[in-house]
Each structure stands twice: as C-alpha cells, then as structure tokens.
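Help! Submission page says 'invalid entity' but I think these are all valid:
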Amino acid sequence: MSISAKLLRTYIWLVLFLALRAVGNLSLAWGTRRLPQKLAADPLVYVRSMLDPFVAFGIVLLIVALLARLALLSVADLSFVLPMTAVGYVVAALLGRVFLHESVSLQRWFAVTLIFAGAALVGTTPQNTTATVRK
Amino acid sequence: MKMTWVLLLITVVATALSDLLQSYEMKHAGAQSVGARGLARLVRMIVARRYLLLSIVCLAFSFFAFMALVQTAPLSFAVPASAASFILETAFAKVLLKERIGGRRAGGTLLVLCGIVLLGR
C-alpha cells in the first residue's frame, strides 16, 4: 500500500472513531443520569442499566468505535493515535455543553484548545514509525 | 469526591494496559480495510488473538469504571481526565513497542498533557 493510501486510511478510521465515540459517550452519559441508583454501589445495577435504551445505544456505538480504533492501530503508532484521538475531548466538551447543559469555564475551554493544538502538532509527524511484521 | 478519583485510577490503568496489548497485536496484523467487511474481520481477529482478548477484558474494567464516573462527574471533565493514561502509554510505546517519538510528537504530547492538567484544576 502506498504512503498516501495509508495516510488516507488512517484519517478515515480516525474520523470514524471520533464520531462513534462522541455520540456513544453522550448517549451513555444521558442514559446513566436517568437511572435511579448510583452505578458504583451495586454491580447488578450495571446489568439493569443496559436495559435503558440510551445506555444500550451508547454501548453499541462504543463497541463499533473500539473496532474502528483497532483498525486505526493497524496503520498508525499508539503514540500517534493517542494525541490525535484527543480531538475527541473538544467534541465531548461541545456535546456536554450543548446537550447536557454542563457549564464549561473559560479555563476548561483553554485546556481543550491546548489539547487540540497538541494533537495538531502530532498530526504533522509520520503516523507509523515501526515496520509492520505479519505473524 | 474520593470515589471519583478511585474510578478515574481504575479507568486509567486498565486503559493503558488494554491499549498496549491492542497496539502490539494490530502492528502484527497489518493494515485493515475500511468498511463493514473490515469490521467483521476485526471481530474474528479478537477471538483468535489472545492478547486482543485480554485487552478486551482490561477494557471492560475500564468501561464499567468510566460508566460509574460519568454518572456523577461532568462529561467534559470525565472524558479528558481519563486521558491521563496516554502519558503512561506514550512512554510504554517508546520502550516496549519501539516507536520513534521525535521532538514534534513529544511536544504535541506535552501540550495535550498541559491541557489535561489544566482541566483537573
């Protein structure tokens, strides 16, 4: 596979992963907040919580996001993937602000901007620095 | 408040271990194709490769701890704070996975770290 094709594939998996995780986390947070009991108190509550449609939908999306991330790790370094996927925190802050009405302070927005800038800098480095060895 | 930090610690450690195992296996698996067929192949791969299976167990620990975390802490805090794991992971990626981490990648990672520290204050 050519370098440009690998780069394109890397960014397709990256965007897919970010979108799936953002919506999955939002659905999960929305669903868990509707539950009558605290999750940390009783393990059985975890199982019951999965009957909530928002929790169930969030779990399905996060499972598909996991597969997308595995595919991403097949074409890019872990040390590349980690900061690049940090862009998801910008999305999380936005979704938390808009849909869950969470207050996001100016300091937190600045922090999110630093994360975004760091990810952008890492994005300028080669995505794969180790040779792929098939078993 | 104490429970929040315990849940965060479980999330961070389990995530780091899971990512390391996943990256190790996927480096050996080779580039995966985009689309539904590629995703189906990945599911089969998880069952066939034991480190991937172990990584899913670690991920389950991380996931349930995270679920409890987002119930009480704001999503805009819980999600970035749990990313503290990647500092640990970047060091492991260099030492164990032999990835080359140059100045720009280290600088970018440091910027992200600063962002996370600022989020926790």
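Support: the input was valid. A stray whitespace character was the problem, and the output above is from the cleaned input. Chain A touches chain B through 70 residues (CB under 8 Å).
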